[in-house]
Hints:
This protein is mainly α. Helices cover 79% and strands 0% of the residues. The protein starts with a helix and ends with a helix. The model has no long low-confidence stretch (mean pLDDT 94).
Amino acid sequence: KWEARVQIGEILFGKVERYDEALAHYQALVKLRPAGSQAPDMQFRIAKSQFFLRKFDDAMQTYRELQRRYPGTPLAERAAFELGMTYLTRASQQNEERTSLAASYQEALDVFQAFLRKYPKSRWAPEARFGIANCLEEMDQLEAAYRAFEELKSSYPSPIVVQTRMIRIRERLLQRKR
């Protein structure tokens, strides 16, 4: 019976992408077995569901809780990375004035930097560095963003994406000089 419930959650989350239902389902399962061996993974799915539902503050809280409860585990490392991605996505979704947008991107940048200090050899390190470069570009720190993207060229999984971003930054810098 328990495995069937877990599979329902996997179907709701991964197969049909009904994140609102997956969120409620995983929350109910965690309540039933809060100390169960699958609870950490379910809590991660809760955070991802919150993210996909654009409940960014809830997702950030859940990722922080995962890091607090399971320090030193691969799940804590993944949650730390996803926390940065959530900050970045929240910043890019905001339609606020430029000053508060800059503050939001600065928060994302700070979270990515903290991730890299803690997990410098992580498999998500290139993505975190890309997130930092993206934040710098969005905060209009174009020279720093260009340097950050340049450092990524050899390690980022999609070098063409990095090259495209560098071209765009060069064009913006040229427009500034005119």
